[in-house]
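Continuing the series of single-chain predictions for the mutant panel. This is the parent chain; the variants come on the following pages.
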Amino acid sequence: MSVAHAWIEEHLGVKSRDIPFSFAYDGSRFAGLLPDWRTTADREELDAGRVRHLLTWRDAKTELVVVCEATEYTAFDAVEWITYLRNEGDVDTPIIEDFRPIDMVVGGGGSDGFRVYHSRGSDSKVNDYELLCERVSKGSPLGLHSHGVKTCMEGPSGSPSVEYMPFFNVDVGGAGVIAAFGWSGPWVGEFSCEDEGVLQMRVVMDRIHLVLRPGEEIRGGRNLALFWEGDRIDAHNEWRRLLLEYYSPRPGGEPFAGLLASTVWGAWMHCDDHVAEAEWWAENDLPLECYWVDAGWGGDIDKSWVNQQSDRVPNRRLFPNGMHPLADVVHDLGMKFLLWLVPESLDPEVEIGLEHPEWLGEPFSDTAYGDNVFYWLDHGDPEVNAFMIDYFSGVAREHGVDIFRQDGTPTWPVEEGPDREGINQIRCVEGCYAFWDGLLERNPNLMIDNCATGGRRLDLETIRRSVMLWRSDCQASMKFDPITSQTFTYGLAHWMPLYGAVAPLMQMGAYAMRSAYAPAMMAGWPGKPADYKAGLDVDMLRRYMEEYLSVRECFFGDFYPLTLCNLGQDEWMAWQFDRPDKGMGIVQAFRRPECVDESVHYAIRGLEAEVRYTVTDVDADESWQATGRDLMEEGVGITLSNRPDAALLVYRR
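Parent structure:
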C-alpha cells in the first residue's frame, strides 16, 4: 500500500478525526464536532492513474455541509484535496473563521526537529525565488506568508507569491512531504513542533470571518501533497513530473513545449515599425517563435498609465488600423502573437469604465504608480465576470492574440460587514479561475501568460491554467545582473517545471544568455530596438538562439542542483537538467565576476550506470565518452578562464 493511500485511509475515512484541514465553527474546531455530524464517503476511479475520494459531513442542527474532495495519484504517491462548505439551511450559519485548508501532521522527526525547504516569492528584488532551508523544532516555529499587494496598496487585495511562495518541502531526514497551497489570495503559514518529533503544518486563508447565508457555498484552497522516501532532490523531480502531467496548461490540447520570444513595448513605435521589427528577426535568420507586444498599445499612455491599461482599443496614432496588420504579419512569419492586457483595470473616461460606471467600485492607489487612481472590475460579481469572459474572448480574437499576457492583481470590494469578512475575497478568487477557464473554453488554442506584476500570482491553481513568462519586475530595465536569472531558475525549478526567463540583449555573451535558458526564453531590449541594433552582434545572437533551441527540451526534465543556492559574486553556481526518457541532458555552470577559482568538478546525477554517454563541451567543440557510473562517481571537470563566464555541457546516450 502506498503512503498516499494509507494517508487517505487514516485522515479521510468515515471515522477519521485527524483530517488534513480545519476551521472554527461557532467557536469550536471542526474536528471536535465530527462525532455529532453525519458522515458519508464515496470512491470513484477516474482513470488508470487517479482515484477520487469524496467525504461529506452534515450538521443536522445548522444544515452546514462540508465536502472534502480528494484525488489520489496512484503513480506518484500523492494526494490532492479541496474543501467546500455549503449552507443548506434556511438561516445564516454561525461564524466560520480561521479556515485552514492545510492542517496536517508530519511525523518521524528526531530531537533536532525538521528541515523545511521553501522559496522567496517575487517582491521585485534580486533575491526573488531564493531557495531557503530553515529548521523547525519544539519552541522554534517557522512563520511564512504572502500578503502581497496588500502591503503597499490601500484596498482589499493580496497575492499568493510575493513574500514567499506557497510551496514547501518538510524533510524529516530521508523522507518527507512536498506540499503546495492553491489559492490566489493572501495566506499565512505556520510550521511548529508542539510535540517532539511531530510537525504541524498549517496554511490559513487570511482574513476569513463570516457567516454563510442560505444556499451559499465557499471553497478552500486546492492542496497537493507528495510523500517521499530517499533522496530529497529525487522527490522534487517526482514532483516536477506530477505537475507536468496533471497541473500544466495544454494550449490547443498539447503540452506547452517552450517559447522563444522578443519583448517590445507597444508604445515604443508605430505599427509599421513593429512590422519591420518582426520582419527583422526573419530577415536575419533568427529563429524567433513569438512577437511580444507589451504595455502602451491601447488607450493613451501620455494621458496616464491607468488610461492605457484600461482601454483595449488600440491607440489610433500608433495602430491606426488596429492590431491585426501586425498580428497577420507575425502569423505569416510563422510566429505567435503575444499581447499585454490588464483585464480588471478601469478608467471612468474610457471603454468599459465609461460604458459601465456602475462597475467602478471604490478607487485605490499605489505609491509605485505616483498619483494614478485605479478602479478595478470585480471577478466576484457574476454579471461582471460573465461580461469579462465574453468581452476579452472577443478582444483576443479581434486582435489575433495567441498568448494572452495578463498583468495586474485582482482587487475585491470592501467586505459587507463584520460577519462577512473574506466573502468578497473568496468570490473574487473563484471568479478569477472562472474567467481564465472561460477564456480557454472559448479560445482552445489560447495560452495564458501569468504576468501578475512579475510572478506574484503563482500557486497550484494558476500554474494549472497558465505559464509565467516574466519572473520579476526587478529585471524590467534590462540592465540587471544575470545572477538574478540564475537564482530565479535555481529556486523555481524545485517547485514548478514551466516558467520563462529573459536575456538582456545589451549584455550579449555566454554568461547573460545562458543564464536565461529555461522552458521559455525572451530576448529583451532596454528600449526601442532600432536605438540598440548598431552594435549588436547578430551572428552571436543567432548562435545562442540556435544553441538554446537545441537543448530546450532538457528544461522539461529532471533538475539537479550541483551547488548550493547563492547570490555571491565570488561563487560558482551550477545545475543539471536531465531527460531520462530521451537519454540526454545538460550541465550549466556559471563562474561569477569575482570568483577566483577557474576550475570546478561536479558529479552528474540520474544516469544509467552501465550506459556509455557522449559528453560535449559546446564551447570547446570537444567530445568524450564515459559510462554513466564514471560520470556519477568521478564527475566532470569544468574550467573557465574568463569571468564572468558560463559553460554548457551536453551529454547523450
